[in-house]
């Protein structure tokens, strides 16, 4: 069945989660379906989850293992992505259309990639993250996107076989959980840093390097629950301002391990534009086909 017709206008009700998203959500306590109540989602057994004033709902049931990105990291990511430097990656992800239905982004952050996907393909979207700061922005990304706080390691509060596509962009992965949530004909779209990703900044600023075994770890995390269907490489040269480069450092894992003042001093000594390379491996995964 196709998606219900949606009005393409800014969402002004920040207390609502789109009904086409709620249909696929499940109570994190008992796995029953959820229904909208007064500024909350509630299951038949009486478990209730408030919808925050900013528009997201917390379905961790108090079990999140970590709090996710800080407000400073989220602001840095929003600034960098708004500058358009990762546009080739966003466009490539959106091109991997998987048909009508629910698209889930795990580790969605501000839902930048998810919003691009649903706008191009007409889906409804569900942004999953553990960072409340990120979810406040994700809830405003597009009226067709619902934002939910959940931890993939604790299990996603989503019905079995609900998703036509899952997006995982530099985010944690669980092959069995992804396989449970995907439709039989669904697909998982994964973006991981390539060996040359931001190599110039890594060398100049002493940032965390890409694990040389990252590709092997990716396959181990997903297979045999999912099988590789396609792969491509997104590689392009970037010309960054100092502010862009500082945001790029501040939005990623290096933000936890570097001194912002030292990074600022190092960048101040570098002439603009600052050269860097966007190098990302984009892989598409599907459920194994049953033997006939």
Automatic annotation (TrEMBL):
Domain 23S rRNA (guanine(745)-N(1))-methyltransferase N-terminal: 26-59
All copies of domain Methyltransferase type, residue ranges: 104-190
Alphabetized GO MF terms: methyltransferase activity
Keywords of this entry: Methyltransferase, Transferase
Biological process, per Gene Ontology: methylation
Pfam families xrefs: Methyltransf_11, Zn_ribbon_RlmA
Keyword Cell inner membrane tagged: no
Name of the protein this chain belongs to: Methyltransferase domain-containing protein
